[in-house]
Structures are given as structure tokens and as C-alpha cells.
What we know:
Elements: H1 5-8, H2 10-14, H3 20-25, E1 31-33, H4 42-50, E2 55-58, H5 64-77, E3 82-87, H6 98-111, H7 129-138, E4 142-146, H8 152-160, E5 164-169, H9 172-180, E6 185-189, E7 195-196, H10 209-217, E8 224-227, H11 233-242, E9 246-249, H12 251-254, H13 263-268, E10 278-280, E11 288-290, H14 294-299, H15 312-325, H16 348-363
Parallel strand pairs: 1-9, 2-3, 3-4, 4-5, 5-6, 6-8, 8-9
Antiparallel strand pairs: 7-11, 10-11
Amino acid sequence: xxxxxxxxxxxxxxxxxxxxxxxxxxxxxxxxxxxxxxxxxxxxxxxxxxxxxxxxxxxxxxxxxxxxxxxxxxxxxxxxxxxxxxxxxxxxxxxxxxxxxxxxxxxxxxxxxxxxxxxxxxxxxxxxxxxxxxxxxxxxxxxxxxxxxxxxxxxxxxxxxxxxxxxxxxxxxxxxxxxxxxxxxxxxxxxxxxxxxxxxxxxxxxxxxxxxxxxxxxxxxxxxxxxxxxxxxxxxxxxxxxxxxxxxxxxxxxxxxxxxxxxxxxxxxxxxxxxxxxxxxxxxxxxxxxxxxxxxxxxxxxxxxxxxxxxxxxxxxxxxxxxxxxxxxxxxxxxxxxxxxxxxxxxxxxxxxxxxxxxxxxxxxxx
Length: 367
């Protein structure tokens, strides 16, 4: 599984300051390839696993049948720890979004789209009994959750498969809540992270990764995985110096050929566009970090009229589809972390190996 011993050497693999995540997951490297719904899939998971890291499949936009099929494909191409990631949000009935559509009316008119016929976006369904049954059939090594945890009965079903369970926390209070309910490891999701903020207890109360890791470590005894703004070996080394047991990396993997992002999104990575990421609720109804697009520039990143997650995306679906068909990202989700300007295109397997090499060199005092 993963990197051959002769490539890394037994000594190199044993010199991570904290090996608890390695022991928990069976990974060779303390790196988790972040599950990024709509941006990552089978190819990226296979590459990460092949390099010795934890590969992840984002399942929030998939049906149980798709999850099972993709899991089977990963298993047929790579041997190593696989993480299936699910959302645990509350999905209310579609709200009255007439005020939101009124705010979008100039864009509908410009595009020649009838607002009443605007196609709906794919639903982001929270973890449910059907997905629990899929986990029972596929038996991934790891199951991760975003926006808290599922109900206790579903949590027990996942636990009974033998899977390691991890979830994201954006505050020490959320970390304590997760640990008290039996979570095996906690992802400290700093404000720097791209994509949706994982808050679930008391609204969005953002903290930078340095402070967050330290306050969570002072609050819980389970291993902590650092996430947010980590795109190179120096970031990994810094996370370990803070006391993290592993890192979760997303934005750096977006620039790999294995990611699923479109050309417009890909073209912005590694440029000055990555220096001005913002938290916005316009695109889904929930705070998420991404690069600016026309909608954000003209409306501002936050809007009180945007319906609650995930319903804000419904009214944008046809606008986004038309713009993307024309090569524009006016209404697209360009999720990326605060270090997006630093990433460079390289293969995902090579990236993973380089990240680990650079981090170990720094941690062992080599330059």
C-alpha cells in the first residue's frame, strides 16, 4: 500500500512527530486529500492513496448507487485507506425565494432566462439511512462528516462497520461536542480553508488555524487534523509544530490534472486571483470561501436574501449553466483557500510525495 519502503525508507516514515493518524487509518503519510464536492472524485482519490495518503470521495452530491460504484472503482485501482465524506446539514423544504430571485432579476433579463423556469441545482442531501446502508456495504476505512454528526442511530451504524469516524470543528466548543459523541479524530477547519465552513453549533464564528488547533488541543484528547491554507511542506511542518497529528489539504489538489474543476476555475489558481478569496453565502446559502466572480463583485459577498443552504443555488442554476457554457465563471463556485495563489500544477501523486518530503525535511532540521 502506498509508497514503497525503499523510496521513503523506514526511518523517514517513522519520523513524523505524531503517528496517531497513521496508526488509526493505516496510511503511510499523515495527509488527507480533502473531499471537495464537485471538484474531486475517483482519479484524485486513487492518486492520493497511491502516494501513501488518505484518499477521499465527496458524497454529498452523489446517490447511494454512485457512492458504491465510485468506491468500487477506487478499490479496483488502489490499495489503501479510503474516506467517504458526507454532509450533516438540516434540509428544510424549499423556502420562498422570491426576494432572492428579485435580486437576481437583472441577470435573468440580461441572459434571456425566465426566472420562473430556472432549473434547480442538484440537491445536497444530508447523511441518511440509505447512505448508512451504503457504508455498511462498502465498508470504507474512514467516514468523515461535515456540519456536525448524523443522528445517533445512523452514527452507530457507521461505527459498527469498524470505520474510523472524523468530523470538522470550527471552534473548541464544536470539537468538545464531537469528542463527547465518540468521534475518533477532529478536523480543525481554520478560517483560511476553501469551501463551506463546517460550523454547526452557534453560527459562523471563524478562527484562524493556528489559534484553532491550539485551543482544540487544549479541549480534547483525540488526534487533531489541521485544515486551512496548507498548500506546501512548510504548512504541514507548521501544523505538526502546533501539535496536529495530520493535515487535510484541498486547494493544492485543485491544481492537479486529476481534479474535476473547469477551465475558468483552474486558470485562476496560482495567480493573484487566489490572494483575494472571500467568504460568501451567495452561491449556496451558507458561508464558503472562494475566489471572487462577477456575482460577488457586483452584489457583495454576503446577502441576507440568499435562501438557507443549499437552496440559494437553485435560482442560480440556469444562470451558472449558461455562463459556464460560454466559458465564463460569473455565477460559478470557485472554492479555494487563502493560499490559492501559491499552488502550482503537478500530478496528484507527485504532489503528495513532494509535500511529505518537504515537510519531513523541515521537521528533521534539513533544508
